[in-house]
Design goal:
The complex is a heterodimer of chains A (295) and B (312). Chain A is mostly helical and 295 residues long. Helices cover 75% and strands 0% of the residues of chain A. The chains are: A mainly alpha (295), B mainly alpha (312). At the A-B interface, helix 1, helix 3, helix 4, helix 5 and helix 6 of A face helix 1, helix 3, helix 4, helix 5 and helix 6 of B.
């Protein structure tokens, strides 16, 4: 039998250690790659758009003249859209979450609904656009107005809102609910007075995050048929509208004809990213500030 | 005295009716909540019904076999032909390019975050990757069209100004966080005791990764890749902006190719009159897209449930 050769073992071990170190640097480089791309993206958008970003741009009306063009209409359009999306998705999302977590009996129906919600979350957004175009715009004859777009977006983000609300409801400890029942409260009283107040920060965080998804979403609205024309600033949910991402889309497409449109698109992206950043910061703030822990 | 007794009785009666009303209200609540819950089921039914019923109109005019076998897609020509193959090739070329970028980088990031990164660094890197996932796809589309394509033109002079390569790469960057984060969850689920056991026996971190972590987390890793594939197939804005609308049946990535999603955007934006074959073709394409993404999602679910390694 051969004996162990200490130098050979040492050699092999060293080799293994060196390979491990190389691999580690490679893995780190891969992780940084995505972040470097992110940095380049942000830098590019800022350097293209910052010169065009001023108060006139934010408060100005849409125009074909890049010197005069502003995005006030798109900002107001986004706000109107959210005015439809937020209440619809909140009511439906929280109600569904309460039903699934607190009322539905464990069984096939509940599993089926849960699986259905999971699958809906994976449906491409453009398919929701087709749903909205067929039902809200054409069948119900709403036309391509805020209400039609809002309902479509609400359905799109509904699965995310439901799942986030369910997770928030699950964090309510059982001793709180049992205490409430022990005092003679009914189920709904317990939900109203004990469960919802505790789960509220979690529900709000989830809702804000899913709203920020809706604010950045473009495809369903393009399918619903938001025209590239100049639309007057919407005054109600029955008016035609445009939103920030759709404006970015048309300006990017037309940048092959008018170069400054690329700058306008970049400036609009900055505004959009700032809005999303503020929403996310609010969500994180609510979560950290108001979420109760029961350890 | 008798007056007061009467009052109490009356009060009790009132109280019981109030209670009864409350109980009735309580009983109504589950029904009401179920009505709200049924909206999500109705959404699914609505999507499936619309896609099928409108596609039927399309397949009455264009035979199914022609739709799936013809390599010509010329909806606007005088003698129109509707073959979905150019769109399928466009979609899958873009998806494959995205996966070539995202799988190695996503997996290496997951390995770094779960096995190598010091805790403090991980706390910074993970949210930073999540920022990448939160950027709207239209922004990626802008980036692909105005930055990546011009940059690639320096390397590949023959590159068209709309091509499938650039949106494919950018789509890859977009799905990196998805693969990284879901795979990392799977890698973290491999028990520390097993990893530590291997380390104690003299294995290097890399050996632990290749021989314990990856085999143990394989179901989660594969599921994350399948989900990311589904995301890439359904992605719209990046390819619509950066790959143009040429219905090429080609495998040349330097050329413009149209994906299924981009076709839908083009048709709906082009004011196709309702009832025309072009209009119905959009439902047939959407149905194809829907079936592909649904199958991917079901597959991902199945993989992560059935294959899951059990540690006791």
């Amino acid at each position: 039998m051969r004996q162990l050769n200490p130098t050979l073992v040492e050699k092999r071990t060293n080799k293994k250690i060196i390979i491990n170190h190389i691999a580690k640097s490679l893995f780190l480089a891969a992780t940084l790659f995505a972040l470097i791309v992110l940095a380049i993206l942000l830098y590019r958008v800022c350097s293209d758009g910052i010169a065009f970003l001023n108060m006139d741009f934010i408060t100005g009306k849409l125009s074909t003249d890049p010197e005069k063009a502003g995005i006030f209409g798109a900002i107001i359009g986004t706000l109107w859209l959210m005015l439809v999306v937020a209440p619809v998705t909140m009511v439906l999302g929280v109600a569904t979450a309460i039903y699934l977590e607190l009322y539905a009996k464990k069984g096939k129906l509940r599993d089926f609904i849960q699986m259905n919600i999971g699958n809906l979350a994976g449906v491409p957004s453009i398919v929701y656009g087709i749903l909205g175009m067929t039902i809200f715009v054409r069948a119900l004859q709403l036309g391509n107005v805020v209400l039609a777009g809002g309902l479509t977006m609400a359905l799109l983000i509904l699965p995310i809102t439901i799942v986030a609300s369910q997770e928030a409801l699950r964090t309510v400890p059982s001793f709180m609910t049992e205490g409430s029942y022990g005092l003679g409260a009914t189920k709904w009283q317990t939900i109203q007075n004990v469960i919802l107040p505790i789960a509220l920060p979690g529900i709000l965080t989830g809702a804000i995050l899913s709203l920020s998804r809706a604010i950045g979403e473009t495809a369903p609205l393009v399918v619903i048929g938001i025209p590239a024309l100049l639309i007057p600033i919407p005054g109600s949910i029955f008016d035609k509208f445009t939103v920030l991402p759709v404006q970015i889309y048309y300006w990017t497409l037309d940048s092959t004809m008018v170069r400054e449109y690329a700058n306008l698109a970049a400036a609009t992206i900055i505004v959009l990213l700032i809005v999303l950043f503020l929403l996310n910061a609010t969500a994180i703030f609510i979560r950290n500030k108001f979420e109760k822990t029961f350890d | 005295m008798s007056d007061k007794q009467f009052n109490v009785r009356e009060l009790m009666k009132q109280e019981t009716t109030l209670q009864r009303w409350k109980m009735k209200g309580e009983k109504m609540i589950p029904t009401l909540l179920f009505l709200f819950t049924s909206i999500s089921i109705l959404t699914t039914i609505g999507i499936i019904y619309i896609l099928f019923s409108e596609s039927v109109h399309f397949f009455r005019e264009v035979p199914i076999w022609e739709f799936f076998s013809s390599t010509n897609l010329k909806p606007l020509s005088a003698n129109p032909s509707f073959g979905v193959l150019p769109l399928l090739v466009g979609t899958f070329t873009a998806t494959i390019i995205a996966l070539i970028v995202a799988i190695p980088i996503g997996l290496m990031s997951a390995i770094y975050l779960s096995e190598y990164a010091p805790k403090k660094l991980r706390k910074v890197l993970k949210p930073a990757l999540e920022v990448l996932a939160g950027i709207p796809t239209i922004v990626y589309g802008f980036f692909a069209f105005t930055f990546v394509t011009p940059m690639l033109k320096h390397i590949i002079p023959g590159l068209e100004s709309t091509n499938i390569l650039s949106p494919g790469i950018v789509m890859g960057v977009m799905i990196i966080p998805m693969i990284a984060s879901l795979s990392e969850d799977a890698m973290n689920a491999v028990p520390t005791a097993v990893k530590d056991g291997a380390l104690a026996m003299g294995a290097t971190r890399l050996e632990v990764v290749t021989k314990i972590v990856i085999p143990g987390a394989l179901s989660g890793i594969v599921a994350s890749i399948v989900l990311a594939t589904s995301r890439a197939i359904g992605e719209t804005m990046i390819v619509t902006i950066a790959s143009g609308s040429t219905k090429n049946f080609t495998f040349d990535v330097t050329q413009s190719m149209q994906t299924m999603t981009a076709y839908i955007v083009e048709v709906t934006g082009g004011d196709a009159p309702a009832g025309s074959t072009i209009y119905y073709s959009l439902y047939a394409v959407a149905l194809t897209l829907f079936v592909f993404t649904l199958l991917m999602n079901i597959l991902a679910n199945y993989i992560s449930k059935k294959w899951k390694a059990q540690y006791e």
